[in-house]
Amino acid sequence: MSKSSLDSFKCRTTLSAGGKTYTYYSLAAAEKNGLDGISALPFSMKVLLENLLRMEDGRSVSKSDIVSIKDWLVNRGKEEREIAYRPARVLMQDFTGVPAVVDLAAMRDAMVNLGGDPKRINPLVPVDLVIDHSVIVNFFGNNAAFGKNVEEEYKQNQERYRFLKWGQNAFDNFRVVPPGTGICHQVNLEYLSQTVWTRTEGGETIAYPDTCVGTDSHTTMVNGLGVLAWGVGGIEAEAAMLGQPVSMLIPEVIGFKLTGKMNEGITATDLVLTVTQMLRKKGVVGKFVEFFGPGLDHLSLADRATIGNMAPEYGATCGFFPVDSETIAYLDETGRTPDRIALVEEYSKAQGMWRHAGTADPVFTDVLELDISTVLPSLAGPKRPQDRVLLSDTKSGFLTALEGEFKKPGEARKRVPVENSSFDLGHGDVTIAAITSCTNTSNPSVLIAAGLLARNAVKKGLTSKPWVKTSLAPGSQVVEGYLKAADLQKDLDALGFNLVGFGCTTCIGNSGPLQEDISEAINKNDLVAGAVISGNRNFEGRVNPDVKANYLASPPLVVAYAIAGSLQIDLTTEPLGTGSDGRPVYLKDIWPSNQEIATFIRENVTKKMFQEKYADVFKGDENWQKIAVPAGETYAWDDRSTYVQNPPYFVGMEREPSPITDIEKARILGLFLDSITTDHISPAGSIKEASPAGFYLRDHQVRPADFNQYGTRRGNHQVMMRGTFANIRIKNQMIPGIEGGVTIHEPSGEQMPMYDAAMRYKDEGVPLVVFAGKEYGTGSSRDWAAKGTALLGIRAVIAESFERIHRSNLVGMGVVPLVFGEGVSWKSLGLTGKEIVTIQGLAEGLQPRQILTAEITCANGDVTEVPLVCRIDTLEELEYFRNGGILQYVLRGLAA
């Protein structure tokens, strides 16, 4: 992150804050010296502009690149222009972080093989990895659950944690936050983020905006703190760590004007689900969203972070909030140093990055508007976060889905006995109620609301239904502190919402198994069981394999549904249950007032609490401290390990890349419909015994009880290749009516798992392609969805449209993403999967977004030619593709 060698706009100057002097690149000076009008830019674009001014070197960043940001005021992002962006730091969680560190370790080995120095492979910007995705809710509903889940987590993940501790010692600029601390995004919000970053170079301290890319799509949560951050694939993050710029197109910026304030009984979750639905309808994939307007005066920092968090769900690159007095108050409340707080305020004001109420609005590409006072209580479900449904319509919405989506007409009243229990089960019964995930656990207002609702329910004599698996997994230890301080944890405990761990849990698929008899009743009778979680992801097959109808809701509604026990109850008109006095109790009887929530927050969420919980954040508990760490600059791979293996990306790699070849006579591995998520492509949840990954683990003497999750085994390519397209809910349209990762091998016509077919095609020397519909790759920034695709031998994915991160990841693994022309799809072409596909134009003269032609030969010999847009979007991406992937490109550059 060396300082700019050029300063075309004479803007390098100094600033005083808190008695210290900082060097910075002044936007006001740049405006006077040739960049006229830039003060009208959106705040997020000002951050990009500062980045280019500071990094101008005449090579990766030119004067014309900088001028293109000024030109944005005219073209508003409609003209495609590539820039090289360098974030201040990188954030990782362990599911995506472990494979990234595996890749770095493999690159060190490859560097040795190329005759280079392994120490060249080292993060050049600060990297923080927070272990938060490995805790599973195996135990719940009592005060022993937390300790038992931690014990099980360490037992299952010793190899991974030993590997990460090695990385912490072997690599510079790399810190690990141990398990049990919190969710990476909340730790980022409460501790790691500084809003304005500093770096000492040549005896001077340079100040610049805190910017970040993360290997989790919800890295956008810190957009609420004025930090420009978004999720990238692990592959792209590794390149950023190694000093490569993030290649990006200058985005459109959609302004989202907020007016008014939330009414009584409305939560930040209700607001964010409304915003998500509006932005999904608008279509903001690949665009920045920036929030502005007088409504911001009435949103807490935690509310803003909740909205920023859901950017992947509304499809945007980020959901940015500018710095203002609320930002400063939050930095103070969470224990940032007075020097840093003074710098943030002075820097933001000097740069025109401070939001002043009443000043002219920035220029935007387009604007949406929402009066916050019109927001109503909401959930989202049963399958997608953008499918918002009013609380008052949830019952009718579920019954409609039961008949249509789940194909159970006339079964609304069906109930079946549960063995060894005193209750029966029916469609829509809530079997999981989880307060989980970064969306809401950063927000004291909804967690205090949940605690107060629990207290009021317990007073009335209400209990959770016995078939509900209840859990509380806060985003940080601070939450545990203030719930105890407010004396609300005991009431949550009384309803079964005992602390189960500090981590992502249910939202990532770590919900743990349902009680065996309940699971058997659901599966034997094909029940559509329900889950209500306070998370941000409710894709099918993600939350729990036994649960089909998944709804997102605020923490207090999660508690309410645990008490009601069914999605077939209208909580706005029907009672939750019967109180100890024999009278019906309604939701409105126990819902806390806004004033009561605010008072509890003021009295119980303190600066001292943040300072104490983060005082020694990298130390870890005694379990972490006891892990023995191997030494050495390169990792001592263990061939017997089923968690960490040296991946094959660099096998036989030469200093110069081989020429790209066209795709000749490829077979089709899968035909997919719209909204195929990265969960469908590379599941994070449980590994089935009768699956290619299950067979591999059993062959390596791993008991099914110790299979763990796919997410925890991402350091082993052998497991992850076998897990690619292995989601239990994925539907390959080559075999209509069948769920799960199966395909037809051609020309034999045999049905088999997709992994087995891919390996058979590999032995036969046959390349593969996949066809899909709209929004292919929606969801988490999961690099294994691209890595697995590449390792299966898939050369191209042909879709109607791609989600941003997955498209980038495919290119980063040397797989070409191709898009049909408007109105064309594999369905309109009548494909069945028996066809042979040839794609020419890759081998010579390939350019970004070039039109290529696919020659599709049907089984009867008929040939159709189809034009496709090559979604390699930039020249930088083209270089990655030519090298076989981004890691190979970086490694060759460092070896040279």
From TrEMBL:
Question: What is the enzyme's class at the highest EC level?
Answer: lyase
Q: What cofactor(s) does the depicted protein rely on? A: [4Fe-4S] cluster
Q: What does this protein do?
A: Catalyzes the isomerization of citrate to isocitrate via cis-aconitate.
Organism, per UniProt?
Answer: Flaviflagellibacter deserti
One Pfam assignment: Aconitase
What is the protein's name according to its record?
Aconitate hydratase
Fetch the InterPro entries from UniProt.
AcnA_IRP_Swivel (IPR044137), Acnase/IPM_dHydase_lsu_aba_1/3 (IPR015931), Acoase/IPM_deHydtase_lsu_aba (IPR001030), Aconitase/3IPM_dehydase_swvl (IPR015928), Aconitase/IRP2 (IPR006249), Aconitase_4Fe-4S_BS (IPR018136), Aconitase_4Fe-4S_dom (IPR036008), AconitaseA/IPMdHydase_ssu_swvl (IPR000573)
Write out the GO MF terms: aconitate hydratase activity
* Gene name of the encoded protein: acnA
**Known EC number:** 4.2.1.3
Which pathway does the database say it acts in?
Carbohydrate metabolism; tricarboxylic acid cycle; isocitrate from oxaloacetate: step 2/2; Organic acid metabolism; propanoate degradation
Which keywords describe this protein according to UniProt? 4Fe-4S, Iron, Iron-sulfur, Lyase, Metal-binding
Tell me the superkingdom of the source. Bacteria
